[in-house]
Amino acid sequence: MAQFFEIHPDNPQKRLIQQAVSIIDKGGVVIYPTDSSYALGCHIGDKAAMEKIARIRQADKNHHFTLVCSDLSEIGTYAKVSNSDYRLMKTLTPGPYTFLLKATSEVPRRLMNPKRKTIGVRVPDNHIVHSLLEALGQPIMSCTLLPAVGQEAIDDVEALRRLYEHEVELVIDGGFCGLEPSTVISLIDSIPEVIRYGKGPVEFLEA
Is the pTM of this model over 0.90? Predict the structure, then answer.
């Protein structure tokens, strides 16, 4: 049975943040709010937790998992970022964007796309996320929480609790955060390419 925390979206309670991080550190899977929709997250080094997320998310072996990072400097530890990539990401972070980049050796191989050795990275604009990341001291391995392939996200936290209370260790209620997933932009090649249209606008890339 999952624990359930109500965390203030603007002033996250430190006690609850520490408890949430303890659950992540012990291999727990958490449902938490971002700046686009609710997401599934776990410790970057926990294989069993990652496999549980893949089952819940019905993700195939080519699914791009995402490392949710505190800032651009942390992204540079896990992804190969060119100067032009950095300039683009700097204008869009924090925000509802996920960037696909070539992974560095710091990324466990099981988190990479097996063919292209790439990883998703993002810096959400959400106080709860940043409090979790500060207390955890490293990125959260994450993916958007969608009930099934082709279905939309759910923002009713009570509904999420009912659906997943036997599949995750913690559900964080951080209030309404939206129903759109992040916009996914591939920076793997020289020209940025929108892979998934989501909450973040991309008109500037298509002009």
Answer: yes
The count of residues in the chain is 207
Q: Which residues pair with 85 in a beta bridge?
A: none
Secondary-structure breakdown of the chain: helix, strand, coil percentages, each rounded to the nearest 5: 30, 25, 45
Give the model's pLDDT for residue 144.
Answer: 87
Q: Residue 42 in contact with residue 30, Cβ under 8 Å?
A: yes
Instruction: Find residue 40's DSSP bridge partners.
Output: 31, 143
| Cα gap 33→9, rounded to integer Å | 9
Give the number of other CB atoms < 10 A from CB of residue 99: 28
**Tally of domains in the chain:** 1
Cβ atoms of 170 and 17 within 8 Å: the answer is no
Give mean pLDDT, residues 90-106: 95
> Both tokens of residue 191?
């020209």
Residue 204 domain flag: no
Domain containing residue 28:
3-153+163-198
pLDDT per residue over 168-203, tens digit each? 999 999 998 888 889 999 999 888 999 999 999 988
